Amino acid sequence: MNELLKECQLPENIQRTYYELCRSRNMFLHGHHLVKNINPYLTAGAIVETVRIAEAIGACTLLTSEDELMTLDKSLKALEALGMNVGFLHARIQQLRSLVLDSESLMDKKKYEAACSQRDATEDEIKKFDAKLAVLRRVSDAYTADIDTYGSTILFATTSYDTCNNFF
Predict the structure, then answer these.
(1) Residue 17: what pLDDT?
(2) Which of 10, 101, 118, 148 has CA 20 to 30 A from 51's CA?
(3) How far is the C-alpha of 17 from the C-alpha of 104, rounded, in Å?
(4) pLDDT digit string (tens) for 8-34?
């Protein structure tokens, strides 16, 4: 491995992180799995990409999107096709996807409960306005009755007065 890393002049931080990944698995991730006769620079690129994905997985939170996790997973499949042993990273992505989906479900549940609560409060307000509107309709009806009563009295009085004036 050292020959490969030196030949491709990988940065020291990439070498160190890749070494730690290999050590955590007790094996070289590229090992004998890597497609034979592959260009060493392609191998180095696969190592760099493996490190990048491992770091991206380590930086994931519950706010990481499903699409981002799927993109990382597709990249891992390409690395596997080259012969990299990255199954453990697939497993971690699946765990993260499960956590993200559970988190999204919990957030959806909270949003649902908030929407239900807001709808109930709005319906209560509508009931209050309906009650107030009913009171206002009764008041308006009472005024209409007064207008009808007094209007007909005034009309009768005015008509009687005009009739009386016509006689003189």
Answers:
(1) 87
(2) 101
(3) 32
(4) 678 888 888 888 888 787 776 676 666
What single-letter DSSP state applies at residue 35?
A: P
Q: CA 72 to CA 100: how far, in whole Å?
A: 14
Mean pLDDT of all residues in the chain?
Answer: 81
Q: Is residue 103 within 8 Å of residue 97, measured between CB atoms?
A: no
**Residue 144 in 3-state DSSP?**
helix
**Whats the size of the chain, residue-wise?**
168
Per-residue pLDDT for 108 more than 80?
no
Alpha-carbon span 135 to 133, nearest angstrom: 5
CA-based angle 86:105:121, to the nearest 5?
160
Cα–Cα separations (whole angstroms), residue 23 to 17, 20, 28, 33, 126? 10, 5, 8, 17, 66
